[in-house]
Structure formats: structure tokens, C-alpha cells
Amino acid sequence: MRAKHGGDWYGFQAKYGRFPLDYSANVSPFPTPKNICKAISLASQNLASYPDPECRLLRRAIAEKEGVPPEWILCGNGAADLIVRFVLALKPRRALVTAPTFSDYQHALSILSCDIERYVLKEENGFLLQEDYLSVLSDDIDAAFLCEPNNPTGALTPMPFLEKVVKRCKDTETVLMVDECFNNFLDDPNAHTLKFLLENFPHLVILKAFTKMYALAGVRLGYVICSNRDLLEKMEQAGQAWSVSTLAQSAGLAALKEDDYVQKVRRVVQTQRPFLKAGLEKLGIQVFDGQANYLLLKTPAPLSAGLALHGILIRECANYPGLSNEFYRIAVRTREENERLLSAVEEVMCQWQNEL
Fold this sequence. Notes:
Blueprint: H1 9-16, E1 21-22, H2 34-43, H3 56-66, E2 73-76, H4 79-90, E3 94-99, H5 104-111, E4 115-120, H6 133-136, E5 143-147, H7 159-172, E6 175-179, E7 204-209, E8 222-225, H8 229-237, H9 246-255, H10 259-282, E9 286-287, E10 294-298, H11 303-308, E11 312-313, E12 315-316, E13 327-331, H12 335-355
Helix pairs in contact: 2-9, 3-9, 4-5, 4-8, 10-12
Protein name: Aminotransferase class I/II-fold pyridoxal phosphate-dependent enzyme
Organism: Candidatus Ruthenibacterium merdavium
GO molecular function, one term: transaminase activity
């Protein structure tokens, strides 16, 4: 079976008979922008025709937004699709992933029975990469994955060290995929991206998605940026034809115009992340410093089960390699929702402490 992800509202509804307040999926706390919904509706009038297999209009729009040539972009059916394509195109014999991190890297590698090496991110180091990571990047590592900011920790690797990693991968001929899907939620996204290295480092692949920022999880749309056209062509051939639907392409084009919406989401994250952190710490829960739109928590209290009875779904993190059943991840949402969450957490913590 695939690893468990957040956002399983259907499973929650089937078990508890109601739709949850979903803190388990790290998506925008606001509804999908109306103009994106209108674009999808208009596109639905042309469903008899096949979608553009090369996503020409969308790739040009992404290229303009990202400041890169359209030839460096490949679109896919969400980030997960592109991770699988990346692995199938490379066919690595040995790969390096961090732990904890997003589980789909390992899932994709397991399709080819690739030998997977884990670099354990330690709690006492704030779940950050350390200098010895460079030595683990040896000549026998064909592919490596990094998530910036990391999921589920929200931690950011300092940029000077990331540049060292990219250069080390060039020396070892390791193809590096850097997942920047949560980059747009950072206070200053342009200060923490490796796009400026792409031209001189064709072994670098940057992964991005529309899912999180624009509340488009149900549409499935992502893309990679890479200056290595041969690799992009292999990735394109590694997946099914017409993998990006007409509806998804139209949604992406509309999303790229939603600058005001992006700023609105970013302001909420900037104000509500510290509010949530302070509120949870006041209740005796350990909260790790994260820079994205989610927070990693640690408590021996049965937080997930208790909050479910309040109609709130959070992400259990026991299935992340390197974490235990004391770890949970929550998204950052609106002030009203966060107050409801904190009130429910307080009740769960009080009940648990009374039962000790």
C-alpha cells in the first residue's frame, strides 16, 4: 500500500459521519479563487477535444512567471506524477533521501527496487542537514532528493549549504531533485530558490506545484524546471500521453494571474503561524520552528484521536521514517479556525492529563 498522506477527508467522513476541519493537508486556508473556477468551467465546454499534449500556453506562462525559458519546463499530473517520471527516466541504482521527508520520493524509487540510503535528520539539530551530508553524496549515488522547505518539519537549509550540495552533486554526477512545492508560502520565496543555478547545473531539477498555494489539490497540476532537455524528454516519455487535462491547464493559466490571492495567503501564514505556535506551546506541546504553512508538533498526548471527536483532522507522523507516534503536523489556517483548533486541543490535553 502507498504511504498515508494528509487530506483524507473521505476516510474521516466515512468514519465520523461529517466533513472535517482539515488541518492535515497543507493547502491554502481560503477557497479556490473564483477566477480559477470560472476558467475550469469555461474549459469544460471543450471536453470533446484532447488537451494540448505539450501544454504550450501553460509552459509559456510558467516560464514568464519563473523567469526561465519555456524549454526548461515540463508539466505533469501533480508533483507526485513528476517524481515518478523523474525516477523512471533516470533509473537510478542507488538514491539518497532524507528522513523525515515527503514519502513519495521513496515510493517512486521503490517502483524500480532502487537501493535507498537515508540521511537521518536529527531532532537535536532542528531536523537540519549537517556538513556530513556532503560526504554521504558519494559517486555511487545516482539520484538525491531534498525538500525545501522540508515536509513535515518546515525547516529550511541555509542557501550557502544548498549551493555546496548542488556543486557536490555535479562532482559525483548525482542528479538532484529539489522540491520547492512549499516555496511560495515563505516570507521571501525569491530568497530561497535554486533557480539561479539551473543554467550552469543541468543535473539540478526543481519541482513545483499549483496544489498548495491555489487550493487546487483536486485538479492535479505540477511542473519541473531543468536546463537539461534530454532529461526532460526522458521524463516526458516516462509517463502517459495527455497527462495534464484541459481543465488543469486552464486552471494553471488562471492561477498564475492570482497575485493578490497569493499575497493574501502569505499574509495569513505570516501572522497565524506564530499565533498557532505560541498557543500550542502554552498548552505544553513542543512545536518546532517551521518556515512554511504548517508546523510539526510533539506530544505524548493522543492528539489525533482526541481532535477527531471535535471534528478536526490532523496529520499523524508516525509513518515518516525518523519520527514516532508522538509527532503530528498541522496546517496554518485562518484566525477563527486556529482559535477553534486551540480550544479543542486544550480540551484534549486537559482530558489526557486528568486520565494520567
